[in-house]
From TrEMBL:
Gene Ontology biological process terms in this record: acetyl-CoA biosynthetic process from acetate
Species this protein is from: Corallococcus interemptor
Signal peptide (from-to): none
Record-linked InterPro entries: Ac_CoA_lig, ACAS_N, AMP-bd_C, AMP-bd_C_sf, AMP-binding_CS, AMP-dep_synth/lig_dom, ANL_N_sf
Name of the featured protein: Acetyl-coenzyme A synthetase
Amino acid sequence: MADPHAIVSVLTESRVFPPPEDFSRRARIRGMQDYQRLWDEAAKDPDTYWGDRAREELYWKEPFQTVLDWKPPHARWFVEGKTNLAYNCLDRHLPKLKDKPAILFEGEPGDRRGITYGELSQQVNRLANGLKSLGVKKGDRVGIYLPMVPEAAVAMLACARLGAVHSVVFGGFSAEALQDRMKDAGAKVLLTADGGWRKGAVVPLMKNVEAALPNAPSIEKVVVLTRTGDGKLPEGPKFLAWDALVKGQSDVCEPEWVESEHPLFILYTSGSTGKPKGVLHTTAGYAVMASLTTRWVFDLRDDDVYWCTADVGWVTGHSYVVYGPLMNGVTTIIYEGAPTQPGPDRFWDIIERYKATILYTAPTAIRAFMRLGDEPVKKHDLTSLRLLGSVGEPINPEAWMWYREVIGGGRCPVVDTWWQTETGSIMISPLPGATPTKPGSATFPLPGIHAEILDRDGKRVPKGQGGLLFVTKPWPSMLRTVYGDPERYVNTYFSELPGMYFTGDGARTDADGYVWLMGRVDDVVNVAGHRLGTAEVESALVAHPKVSEAAVVGRPDDLKGTALVAFVTLKQGNPPSDALKKELAVHVGKEIGAIARPDEIRFAEGLPKTRSGKIMRRLLRDVAAGKQSSQDTTTLEDLNVLAALRQNDE
Ligand code: 6R9
């Protein structure tokens, strides 16, 4: 749910920032005429437009003949083509870029490593050969549960090289979350580490893996990277040290040339039901757009030092830490730890030392930095920066302005990029040399992207009015299915209006046609830029022996965008207490991960329900936000319940 304060301020937002002249002059796309021309070309003849892009972006072992085969809601792109994504990220660059840094890594404790394209290629080939020796073949699923270290990228690329399908699980997720995902994906091998560093402490990845394994029977081997040096390799034939696996492996591993539609990865994401969806992306369409959007949206140049702060456990890490930048042959920074470890200026220190030119981060982080004041920023020379990006949730104009002025010194264009796990790559965003920006607006869809704001009948809503955001035509990096559940693919994304992709987001356009995102309209919430299903948190809560029922809603939060509020009824004989609140929060952390811990738990005698027994979440959202409800309560089963909930308001 969007922050209503943010909406009020975006409704009155009228500042416009044209691209700086010297930026435009050297940019890849230099003005709105260029943008418009591309947009028109793409709209008029999408096959030619996307066909040209695909030939420009990728090396094709075998060319495609058919750009798009669209049988709604199923798309196949670049049909007869064959390619390999690891080849596109590495081999094709080697003649020129062998000695160029591909990754500049900094661990939280301060350890540093630079890895050139040549070295990265060696590491990927060795690991690919190692995985082969474990029996990993084209189409096999491989789990990746690693901290933000270069080996995470190596692991993904090694899978891509073999045509194996990776499924990265965010290192902050719990053993339970890991086991569910591994089971659903049927992963054969899991690549992990002993631990990772976060906020000065060790995240016990190996311990979580050990707890998950009994319930993830498909996993035959666990490959363990030594990162923190914590604990020994567990006993047993399943466990294998990463170093031992790659030692002595040849650094030549022929890429598996896969069909365009060969699956590349599964990434689990929250939906409106309790069970996360395995979003499946395939090779060529995904690659074409990850590569193209990285270059266009960040206006990449060969000498850029690019830093996207996302974790590879999220889609942003897939497309804009690993695949997009490496396909473009730029240098990308990977930082392992927390933004304020050991001090509030860690990010700015990194930018100064590496002379980063592009920063791509989340509004939550920006707001957190804003709270820390300008001092930590002012201590550092950030003049290397030339472009700033934002992703993950709506950015409020205040944060946007602070980002622009304090971080960007007023000289860097800000690109607010809207997209989703399902879209694979950026869909709505300024092009920094072309688009005049407005603080808080993602501006316009990229050429070839038909993002439209419609009502439930499929009619376009008038400018200024809110509606539902759809993508009405297929695009190359769209998800292809929900892994193992093709019906859910159709029901979730293509049943609101048949044949059109429903994003789950609300949006409006202003008088100038700018798109303003207004947050989720389903039961998905964006907590500190992390996507969570309220139903997942609810099912974690009711799994606790003392809980009878739970309803979880979002409440606007200045820092996190949305905070989680859980309304809980207890089983008889369990008196409410602060200690129990704590216990429940810890329990949710254990079931899902710390990011899902409710910010507030409220015990209630009953939950407001409709006569048909549905929990009235909208009402609870109002209660959580401390608002008088404008909602119609005539279908409420018991008005006393609502009155009692309100009384509980502190
Ligand atoms: C890339 C990513 C997707 C949801 C999406 C929307 C929100 C992302 C946004 C934004 C407003 C932006 N979202 N970017 N809302 N402005 N620039 O975040 O993917 O984790 O799947 O989340 O995030 O609500 O539907 P994912």
